[in-house]
Specification:
Elements (H helix, E strand, L loop, with lengths): L1 H9 L13 H14 L2 E6 L5 H9 L4 E3 L1 H11 L9 H4 L2 E3 L3 E3 L8 E6 L2 E7 L5 H17 L9 E2 L4 H10 L11 E3 L2 E3 L1
């Protein structure tokens, strides 16, 4: 969504696309390189059968555990659709032990945040459904809690004709530790 994109833009998240990795060693090599070079590694997981989640857990010698919050999100997804919560569905509720869940009732696939040694691995399902909830209600608050002592949110409306000026200013602006500006559009209105 525009808001999630704006949030990732102002947080200076660099979305780098790498080739698909199909084996454990190749995946863990790419993951290790990213973790070494970046404090936060974000993975958009489009793998079949929760392959990425399993590789991360195995590579870090962690067990996959059913998370109560993920299970509630899955139940909220399945119930109105008349789908039984079993088999592959229940796999969506399993995340590596010690991980913080990123949940949405819009999808079967749930994400997670895993912090180890001052580095952070974040896994979102590659499907668009649920990403906004997971980003806005899970990842974004996590960044605010762990990236700043205090967070002050102030929202100001921007005239449409001034959006490009504000965006250009933000591109040139050097962010401090506790400054996280954001420009986004919601319901046809622009906000800063």
């Amino acid at each position: 969504s525009p808001r999630a994109r704006a949030q990732s833009d102002f947080l200076k998240l660099e979305w780098q696309h790498s080739d698909t990795v199909r084996d454990m060693d190749g995946f863990l090599d790419v993951l290790q390189q990213s973790v070494n070079e970046n404090p936060i590694t974000v993975i958009l997981d489009g793998s079949e059968g929760y392959y990425t989640k399993s590789m991360i857990a195995e590579g870090l010698d962690l067990q996959l555990e059913e998370d109560a919050e993920c299970r509630c999100a899955l139940e909220a997804y399945c119930q109105p659709r008349g789908i039984s919560l079993s088999g592959r569905m229940l796999e969506g509720a399993r995340i590596p032990e010690g991980a913080q869940p990123l949940c949405s009732s819009e999808t079967v696939d749930q994400g997670f945040i895993l912090v180890r040694g001052g580095r952070c691995i974040v896994v979102f399902p590659a499907a668009k459904k649920g990403f906004d909830d997971m980003f806005a209600k899970g990842f974004y608050p996590f960044l605010l809690r762990h990236g700043a002592e205090t967070a002050v949110v102030q929202i100001m409306a921007i005239r449409g004709s001034k959006v490009k000026d504000v965006e250009e200013y933000l591109r040139l602006f050097r962010y401090g530790k506790n400054i996280l500006p954001l420009v986004y559009q919601e319901n046809g209105e622009f906000y800063f």
